[in-house]
Amino acid sequence: MTEAKPTIETREEVMFFDTDCGAVVHNLAYLRMIETCRTRLAALMGMDLRTMSETQVFPVVVRTEIDYQRPAKLGDWITIRGRLDEISRARFWCAFEMIRESDGVTLVTARQALALVAMPAGKPLRLPADWAKRWE
Predict the structure, then answer these.
(1) Which sequence spans correspond to the domains of the chain?
(2) pLDDT tens across 68-79, in order?
(3) Of 8, 26, 96, 104, which is most buried with the most CB atoms under 10 A?
(4) Cβ–Cβ < 8 Å for 23, 73
(5) What's the pLDDT at 1?
(6) DSSP bridge partners of 68
(7) How far is residue 39's CA from residue 44's CA, in Å, rounded to a whole number?
């Protein structure tokens, strides 16, 4: 039975450590915010932090595509929307949209490809077979 693909929303306030000397968000700060959203999305997919720690199976980013459309600034509140976008046998893609809450403007869109890896050996794994059945 096919289910709706997992989606999640997180919120972040732009802090001093997120900005450059012009009070504009540094490009790496957006990736940190996406990381938080993606970690929570992984929990919805059955990969919460405790499970990852116990099984030593982790989702590893193998590709990031990001489009910076508008800058966020110090004090802005940003909504980060994440969703499972695509599944293959060995990789899955998550898509993200970052929106400034004060005016609804899209600041960033991004996609990330991830693979599951068994640690500490670093061995790539196939995705669980039920993922394609559940979410395709």
Answers:
(1) 7-135
(2) 999 999 999 999
(3) 96
(4) yes
(5) 61
(6) 108
(7) 9
Contact 98, 47 (CB under 8 A): no
| SS3 per residue for the chain | CCCCCCEEEEEEECCHHHECCCCEECHHHHHHHHHHHHHHHHHHCCCCHHHHHHHCEEEEEEEEEEEECCCCECCCEEEEEEEEEEECCCCEEEEEEEEECCCCCEEEEEEEEEEEEECCCCEEECCCHHHHHHHC
Residue 117 pLDDT > 80, yes or no? Answer: yes
- Each residue of 38-68: pLDDT tens digit? 999 999 999 999 999 999 999 999 999 999 9
